[in-house]
Amino acid sequence: MIPAKIEDVFLQLTTNFSGVIVNIVAGKFAKNTFQVHNSIYEFCPFLEGTLEALEPLEPFTLEGMVLVSYEKEYNVDIELFKSADEISILIHNRTNVYKIVAQLNQNRNDIFFIKRELAEKNEELKRLREIADKANEEKSRFLAMMSHEIRNPLNVILGYSEMISEEEINENVRKYSKLLSISGNNLKVIVNDILDLSRIEAGKLELINEPVNIKEIAKNCVENYSYQNKNEAVELFFNAEKNIPNSVLGDPIRINQILSNLLSNAIKFTQKGKIVVDVKKVSEEKDSIRIAFLISDSGRGMTNLQASKIFDEYQQNKKSDNRVFGGAGLGLSIVKHLLNAMNGKITVESKLNIGTVFITEIPFSKVVSSEIKELKVEEKSTNKTLEGKRILVADDDALNQTIVAHILKKEKVVLTQVKDGLEALNVLKTRSFDLVLLDIHMPNITGEQLVQQKNEFHKPNREIPFLSLTANTTKEDVERYKKIGFVDVISKPYTAVEFVEKILGNIF
């Protein structure tokens, strides 16, 4: 017995050699269309000529034929077999199969076009990415160039402000000098923030992972700002839980930058009261610990709307903030970027006219026993002196030369100054020195070119330390300078203390 479902999709019949239906053998497909004694050609005109041409006892198949029954089209496959006295015809209803095949073909065509469109879109995205990368590179190059151009005159402004403040002057002049220095330092912060943000956007931010003492970093940061804070109506406090480990793995420079930005912000907007830095343990696992830094102040506070925008770039809560407090509104945005890079987070709680609390959480890896080293705060050298040291300074900027001369003569240095690299080369060929300071951008021979010509120097000068004086302060620049022969870099702008400490740290 043939199942009903199968019977519905085929029809088997026989005809004579003239195409007249002799018998319906099996099946129910289109059974009412094909009647005994009717011609097969009435509904299958495509069989005309085919039946007559059939070879006896040779099966023959027609695929994908169209059959119309009661005004409905069917896709059919037909198998023909010619015996000695009749022709057997088996009609398979393949309508659903052909529909599926047609849909599959359509889907395949659709996929082909989608793939082609995706390939075109990918090429377009690749092209746009290359344009964006190039634009970022150009922006970084432009910012680095502008940074250099700003840092040079800024070094002169801050240097001369410091020199003026050391002179015997009346209070008005001292006040003007102080304001000039504050404005210069504000500009320095803005330049550094813009370069940091550019580096982050370009994906060039690199974090180091070394053993650090979190409590020591936070404590030193608070002490530094306590020293800088001139507002006696504001007190700074530091608290750290005892369960904070002495050593974890982290980036000390970036941690200090985060805390410095938050503390600087608190000091700016707190006219009286207190600022407190708390270090607390949030959670601890076998190999890691999560530490929170809470910076709270009793300043002017913020509304919820202001707090929601505080981490946006160039955000200032009041239009007058830039004029009154300085800055470009980048500090908190950079803090958030740095914390994201560290897998940390920052939140803010604030009440208008009451105060603000910034809460940062940073996960740290624990230091394994083999990596534990005694972490000591580097003590400033008290027994080293520059007195009597022979130092050569090459700089084509007369104003910068004046500042350097002022600093080094106070240290009783035997100072030689030249105005370009060629003069420096001639002096280095004939006279001996203990240390050389070279400006990077000089006429005739640049600082980079000169430091690579040590074989031409007087023999004792080939082993002495060379330091670069430059406003090019990116990590790539510093690494390049050290690779070609400089032992260290003095970044412009610098203070007299920073300048002397850098030399003391490198002179033999």
TrEMBL record:
Main enzyme class: transferase
Catalytic activity, EC: 2.7.13.3
Residues of the Histidine kinase domain: 145-366
Catalytic activity line of the entry: ATP + protein L-histidine = ADP + protein N-phospho-L-histidine
Residues modified as 4-aspartylphosphate: D439
Keywords for the protein's UniProt record, in alphabetical order: Coiled coil, Kinase, Phosphoprotein, Transferase
CDD domains in UniProt: HATPase_EvgS-ArcB-TorS-like, HisKA, REC_hyHK_CKI1_RcsC-like
Gene3D superfamilies: 1.10.287.130, 3.40.50.2300, Histidine kinase-like ATPase, C-terminal domain
Coiled coil: 111-145
The UniProt record lists the keyword RNA-binding: no
Domain Response regulatory: from-to ranges: 390-507
GO molecular function list: phosphorelay sensor kinase activity
UniProt protein name: histidine kinase
